[in-house]
């Protein structure tokens, strides 16, 4: 598609809801600008790679192999500025700041149930009506978001050395992306239970798990909680905060803070106070 250097849209749809979106009850009432449903009845791939996808996005840069020699469409490629990305998702709130809401179903600052958010992922099986199954089984799924790498390039010069393309950063939270009372990451649990669960029996094995080899597990170097942390008196917000009696295990040694004292344990149950200088 040729264009005069201005923004263009291949497909554009507008859903302008002018009525009252109120179903008068607690039943979910969805108003959707776009719906794409995919179901599969026979999927028998014997190795990795067989998929049943609902959608596939692909965006590509100009190709450096055509920086001087035209491509199949007689176009020489250039790239001196600009961003290539899958896209942008906007979800604006022009009403008011509803305050910190750490999970769905919690009233906002006015005691009402109003949420403005980005994407949400639910492992829900919805094809039962298509299959004629009024009571389908529902099982756990593998992951909500996966960040992978691409296969290495193959061919002849002027290809770059054969590498598998990776991400420099897996997830980037930009400056001012999180409000002062918010968090970069939050795993929610019901009151009095484990993080990420409605009951202790549903608690995840770990909030964050790292395995294998890495250059650094967690790197706080060059960062700080606020502008006062790296002053001469080393005051300000700590990089890690834990409540009394929450412990850290280093090899076969547990360490914790307890009523103003530093304690260690070799079994996680019996604790000995450490005299600090």
Helix content: under 10%
Mean pLDDT: 83
- The backbone outline, from C-alpha atoms, is extended
Distance between the termini: 72 Å
In the predicted model, the low-confidence regions spanning at least 5 consecutive residues are none
Strand fraction: 5-15%
Report on the structure:
There is one protein chain. With 277 residues, this protein is low in regular secondary structure. 1% of the residues lie in helices and 6% in strands. Among the domains are: 82-146 and 183-201, no CATH class; 242-277, no CATH class. The longest helix is centred in the middle third of the chain and has 4 residues, at 128-131.
Summarize the structure.
By secondary structure, the protein is mostly loops.
